[in-house]
Amino acid sequence: MKEYFNNIYLALSTIFIGMSVTFKHLFVPAVTIQYPSVKPQLPTRERNRLYVNMDDCIGCLQCARACPVNCIEIETVKKIPDEDLGLTSNGKKKALWVTKFDIDIAKCCYCELCVFPCPTDCIYMTDVYEFSEFERGNLIYDFVTLTGEERKEKNENYEKFMVEKAAQKEAELKAKANENKDNSQDKK
Q1: Which residue, among 168, 167, 169, 149, has the nearest Cα to 157 in the 3D structure?
Q2: How confident is the model over 79-101, as pLDDT tens digits?
Q3: In a domain, 93, yes or no
Q4: Average pLDDT in the 102-119 region?
Q5: Could you report the per-residue pLDDT of 149-184, keeping only the tens digit for each?
Q6: Can you tell me the distance from the alpha carbon of 38 to that of 32, in angstroms, rounded to the nearest whole number?
Q7: CATH number of the domain that residue 54 is part of
Q8: CA-to-CA distance for 181 and 188, rounded, in angstroms?
Q9: Which domain holds residue 137?
Q10: Alpha carbon distance 9, 27 (integer Å)
Q11: Model-level pTM?
């Protein structure tokens, strides 16, 4: 009989202890953040999505070389001598057209190693951390401000310039060879 009442006492005491803990937390304000409407406060050195300011990019490839997972692809074309690409915000003169600047965020490990070697500070981490996609191809960000036609035009212009330059050099070499040939005949 003593064991019967001891079990009843034990059951009631454990229920009372559990309910006292429940009632104690019932009137305390919630600490849960209501996520979609309230964003959490991020630390000052967070690492999130990369952004490239193409107005400041000089196409030096430093960020692509520093990337440990090769998620940055850059293609450049030299400018033609009569073109003026302007200056960056740091005052550096641009010498290259950047025809491709893709960052594959799916590969990115958010190490921020690409940010530090940039001489013009055009690549940096933003505070955007929500960028999930249904298609993997949508995680490849193209930062180039040129249209597809402009990219093709810049490549073709540079190729034409190089062909003209090679033809000019060849003509100069032929003229020099003819001049040397004439000089050697005059000496005889």
Answers
A1: 149
A2: 888 888 888 888 888 888 899 99
A3: yes
A4: 92
A5: 888 888 888 888 888 888 888 888 888 877 777 666
A6: 10
A7: 3.30.70.3270
A8: 11
A9: 50-153
A10: 28
A11: 0.69
- Tokens of residue 86, six digits: 């302007």
Instruction: Find, among 83, 52, 75, the residue nearest to 155 by Cα.
Output: 75
Please tell me the total count of domains within the chain. Answer: 1
Residue 1, in any domain of the structure: no
What is the chain's alpha carbon radius of gyration, rounded to the nearest angstrom?
A: 34
Residue 139 lies in a domain: yes
Tell me if 82 is assigned to some domain: yes
CA nearest to 52, candidates 121, 127, 135, 111: 121
pLDDT digits (tens, 9 = 90+) for 35-82: 878 888 888 888 888 999 998 999 899 999 999 999 999 999 888 888
Distance between CA atoms of residues 116 and 104, nearest Å:
19
> CA–CA distance from 171 to each of 25, 157, 159, 161, 163 (Å)?
90, 21, 18, 15, 12
